[in-house]
Amino acid sequence: MRGTDKGWYMSISEHNAASACEHHACYSMAKTGLNRSFTLELSHGSHVVPRWRSPASSSGAWCPLLAYTGRVLGAFQVIFSSLASVALDNVQFRNCGPQTEA
User: For residue 77, what are the CA distances in angstroms to 1, 15, 42, 97?
Assistant: First the structure.
């Protein structure tokens, strides 16, 4: 985890995601804050693509997060970021490995 004067963030590195790759987690966001958004972005090369953003109404209770990467060749990072206090739990990466032919 890294921090700056703008907030704390966590970044996870991955390689070669299958087209069915899903990112699952549960999050709980503070009820107060200037900008209560929580985002998941995918960084690949020089591109950063938003993949998920919390709804404006999510605060306090634990909420599900589901984001899809799509097919990605090579190294990439999944970036979780927020300016509000966020608890993140049960992070899972499903169906992300290479697909095998039957």
Answer: 13, 8, 6, 15
Strands 47-53 and 2-4: unpaired
pTM here is 0.75
Q: Which domains, and CATH codes, for the chain?
A: 2-93 (2.60.120.200)
What is the per-residue pLDDT across 20-70, written as a single tens digit (0 to 9) for each?
Answer: 999 999 998 877 665 667 899 998 889 999 999 988 766 678 999 999 988
How far is the CA of 79 from the CAs of 10, 12, 13, 32, 45, in angstroms? Answer: 6, 7, 9, 22, 14
Q: Which residues contact 74 (CB under 8 A, 6 or more apart)?
A: 15, 16, 44, 45
